[in-house]
Amino acid sequence: xxxxxxxxxxxxxxVQKERSMQLQKELIGGHYDALAMAQETGxxxxxxxxxxxxxxxxxxxxxxxxxxEINALQSGMRKLSAGYIAEAEKQGHSKDVCTYVKCDxxxxxxxxxxxxxxxxxxxxxxxxxxxxxxTFMKWFELxxxxxxxxxxxxxxPYQSAGHIHPHHRDYIxxxxxxxxxxxLERVSGRRYDEDRLRAMLRLSAQAxxxxxxxxxxxxxxxxxxxxxxxxxxxxxxxxxxxxxxxxAVEYYRALRAETEARLAQGLGPITPEGSLDKxxxxxxxxxxxxxxxxREFWKMFYEEGAVVVASTYTKVGGLxxxxxxxxxxxxxxxxxxxxxxxxxxxxxxxxxxxxxxYIREYQADGFLINSVKSCNSFSVGQLLMLRQxxxxxxxxxxxxxxxxxxxxxxxxxxxxxxxxxxLQMLEQKRTEGARA
Length: 436
Ligand code: SF4
Known about the structure:
Radius of gyration: 21 Å
Bound molecules: iron/sulfur cluster
Largest sheet: 4 strands, parallel
Distance between the termini: 43 Å
Number of strands: 10
Strand content: 5-15%
Strand order of the largest sheet: 2-1-3-4
Helix content: 40-55%
């Protein structure tokens, strides 16, 4: 979930046209500046994770969020992660540990300089929203050893049965009221202000409507967006530190207007080399992207005319396209439902159903699984998913392997080879279908 450098930076003419890119750059840059100044300005800082984050609640206390996964992926894009991972392994962290964690620990050991080159502040609180991935817990245990600061834990029940039970919501509400909010009051020195929270949630819902419109524009043939490589930029502000702000509303309004303009003109998505004008394959992708060779990876798709029309990775911070909205009339209840609804908190059958519906609704020619070595939360069960999806939809699946931020596990030649053969197979199937 990243934001800059933007993929379309290579195409200057496009950049000038796309106001949203500039807005996003300012948003992120401003946030890292505020973090770098936090000590001078007296702002308090909370480290927390992307899935199930409580951004509006934190901001209602004037707290500044830091998302460690975002720092790790940004370091990956800037080719810094290999050095950080090596540092963490030198300190004894095993090769099998999630590389986001090692990247973060290595960055910390090397001075905690954030992605924009400015130092990140120490946390005043570690807020662990525990949604589906056990590594989150281990990660914050390591950070607590480093920082010796308070920890607030929000235990989010896993959605194993594919729906939210009322007692699950009540369990989260009780933790918010008795554990999380009192901790935020202590750290910030402010009282909980529900009206302020409601106002922020109202802004969130507005931006969420616009994001959904952007993601769903890919139902049109040809799609005006790439919902994976482009999609990770579109979800950046929503999934991280900016929900509930006027700036995020402005960003999504601009993004929606630009997308609708492309839609109306029948244009394809923007790539680092300009507009993709001939959509040849429509794909659904499961799994996170690789960040260390992000552009090279993307190029393997767009140079073949392959456009990703829907992806599950763009749902790690919420399934807004399935109807969820933050709700100012039910502030804490909707935060609780939000935490439970993130993709990493869903069981395998629900994930498979989601993919199946994407393949149908977005008229996909194929679906591809990028299985990342680091992330058990994503990778477990993906081969079973592949088989079930092929059986249910008759659409052929492809399988590639890489990693999030460890360049040792991105084998460009192998991946390119696999993608090309997979697309050729789709082409052949299409030709046979036309003949039959
Ligand atoms: S294992 Fe996966 S979900 Fe868990 S922290 Fe690592 S990347 Fe995130």
